[in-house]
Amino acid sequence: MTEPTHRPLPAGYRLTSLTEADKRAVLEVDTWAFPSEVDLDEQVQHPLPLTWSRTFGVVSDHEDADAVPFDGAVPTVSELAAMHASYPFAEFPVPGATLPVSGLTWVGVHPQHRRRGILSAMIDVHFEQARAAGEPVSALFAAEAAIYGRFGYGQAAQDLRLTIPRGAALRDVSGADEHTVRIEKADRARHGELVDSLHRAAGADPGGHGTGVNRPGWVTRESPELQEAWWSDPAAFRRGRESQRIVVVERDGEPRGYATFRRKLSWETTGPRGTVSTGEVVALDAAAARALWGVLTDLDLTSEVEPFMIPVDDVVTHLLVNPRAAAGRVVDNLWVRVLDVPVALAGRRYAGDVDVVLHVSDARVPENSGHWRLRATAFGDAACERTEDPADLSLDVRELGSAFLGGVSLASLATAGLVSEHRPGALAAASAAFGWPVAPVSSWVF
């Protein structure tokens, strides 16, 4: 283990790089932070999504009595008190473009070592490393929604959870019935290239309209570790469901969409009751999407379909004749932290012309604080540079993160008192420009 550069940790703790040789220790501290019904000996048998060069631990040196293990055993320097990692997303979709983004993940602290400032120190390390690597944005899924706002992360996307009754009426879409359907057991050797190419294409042009409007947050599995973990299908993690299946729809012999799913069946006195849990539902156009949902909502011995992490504007929300029957619930999805204001703001595109001076406050990354002039043409190039001009709008970096992917409007944040307007008309213009035609969403969580 080698020790990277880092800000000071509390006395008695030190940061260390982790390697695949530390896999068991990583899983042990992870199951302390996130309790699991799967035994540790079972977990170590399966691949992890972590990029080891981006995985770090905090080790307790046990210099004080409060740091001894629960069982009173003789302490060793190898005891892992906490850890964090990040996914390398070199081509993370942002409005109209892609940017290098650091996907913060597997952040956990052993309960013995909580409330000592370890989490704060690890976040500072993550920020430093991401900025040094040229990653102007960090993104994450929050296990607890109240934690990350204090570090400057803003809720930037939401996803929709539905329970769709089997046989729910769907609106007709021209061309949907021209698709052929294959329903198979998901297999990386057979379906890997198909899944990867369709997923990338659908995120780059949702709906297949050729407008060049992408879906922000539509993250692909860029690293080998993410790919391997996604295709791994250990029975211990299925929670009583079957192995992963896949539906592929084709038109004139060309794959146009796929959906992964698992079923779980219970036999009750009234008859069989099954649930279809979908993973990714990906289509290149509306006709392919209608063909996929037609299959998913009409599988034998099932009573309901539960999609996972679909956009709030997903195709199925418009296809359902009776959307109330699906009992929709919206939950937070991606949280975004802007780490380099000028690079991040210049790296995305805007839905309208904008020339605005933003006063940004950032208590954790002082380099971001100050006045920034943002200039952009609609769907064209953007520039952002420091200025001494008076501010048109004032906001904290947390709210900048919320608005960054285009799914949360600056105007709505202003109604909550989180954005201040200093020049009349600036808020409306900037809010329209920051918005994006399709809602952001991501499902890269592991």
Key attributes of the depicted protein:
alpha+beta; six-stranded mixed β-sheet; 21 strands; globular; disordered N terminus
List how many beta strands DSSP finds: 21
Uncertain runs: 1-5, 64-77
**Average pLDDT, to the nearest integer?**
92
Strand content: 25-35%
Question: Biggest sheet, strands in spatial order?
Answer: 1-2-3-4-5-16-6
Q: What's the topology here?
A:
Elements: E1 13-17, H1 23-33, H2 40-43, E2 55-60, E3 80-94, E4 97-109, H3 118-132, E5 137-141, E6 154-155, E7 158-161, E8 164-165, E9 180-185, H4 188-204, H5 224-231, E10 245-251, E11 254-268, E12 271-283, H6 286-296, E13 304-306, E14 310-311, H7 315-319, E15 329-332, E16 334-338, H8 341-347, E17 354-361, E18 370-376, E19 382-386, E20 393-396, H9 397-404, H10 410-415, E21 419-421, H11 426-434
Parallel strand pairs: 4-5, 12-13, 17-20
Antiparallel strand pairs: 1-2, 2-3, 3-4, 5-16, 6-16, 7-14, 7-15, 8-13, 9-10, 10-11, 11-12, 17-18, 18-19, 20-21
Brief rundown of the structure:
The protein is 23% helix and 30% strand. It contains 11 helices and 21 strands.
Q: Would you kindly provide a written description of the structure presented here, covering whatever features stand out?
A:
It is a single chain. The protein has 446 residues and is an alpha+beta fold. A hairpin with an 8-residue loop joins β17 (354-361) and β18. The protein has 11 helices and 21 strands. The two termini are 25 Å apart. It has a 7-stranded mixed β-sheet with strand order 1-2-3-4-5-16-6.
